Amino acid sequence: MWLYERCRKEWPEEVQKLSHPELQGSAMQVEAFRSLINPDDALFANPASMIDAIRQYCKDTDQYVPETPAEICRCIFDSLALRYKQVFGYLVEMASFPIEVLHIIGGGSLNKYLNQFTANATGVTVLAGPQEGTALGNIMVQAKAVGAVKDIWDMRRIIANSLELVKYEPEDKTVWDAAYKKYLEIVAKKG
């Protein structure tokens, strides 16, 4: 969400005043996969302007250069989900067991669009939540320190029984597979 948060700070005040659901909802109204970036490209590490960096990446890779906040948001979310697919593929290759569920925690777990896109891109079920994973982990470590829980399995059981997770199932496999192919071509072009 680094890219999104940095762009949000750069947009005019009237855009900054929009809620996350309003801004993200407007992104769903623009064309999907029109502009794609590699979110892990060095260009995005800490640029003076994240908006300019995204536009430069698109220009350098002969793509449509996003202009509006909605177009930039859509570029970010599409690209993040496709990058997640790429990294998820590496994990699947290395794992000695099947990975059938991806669990997203922290603030990103609240972004329903990105969570659905991640399920679509990876082709696996996504479970979203909790938002405050670090705080819950800290509480459980404290509980173990005072003997209230016995081990990590006990901690996990308590946390799992205390939360409602949101489940996202993959959709539109053909569309997302085609977008992933485009993403890989763009990433290869940038080098």
How many strands in all? 3
What is the arithmetic mean of pLDDT? 94
Radius of gyration: 19 Å
Assembly state (oligomeric): single chain
Instruction: Name the overall outline.
Output: globular
Sheet with most strands: strand arrangement: 1-2-3
Q: Main sheet, how many strands, which sense, barrel?
A: 3 strands, mixed
Characterize the structure shown.
It is a single chain. The protein is mainly α and 191 residues long. Helix content is 58%, strand content 6%. The chain is built from nine helices and three strands. A three-stranded mixed β-sheet has the order 1-2-3, with helices on one face. Helix 1 runs antiparallel to helix 5 (69-94) and helix 5 (69-94) packs across helix 9 (173-190).
List the helices and strands and how they pair.
Elements: H1 2-10, H2 13-16, H3 20-27, H4 50-60, H5 69-94, E1 101-104, H6 112-122, E2 125-128, H7 133-145, H8 152-162, E3 166-168, H9 173-190
Parallel strand pairs: 1-2
Antiparallel strand pairs: 2-3
Helix pairs in contact: 1-5, 3-5, 5-6, 5-9
Features:
191 residues, 3-stranded mixed β-sheet, globular, 9 helices, mainly alpha
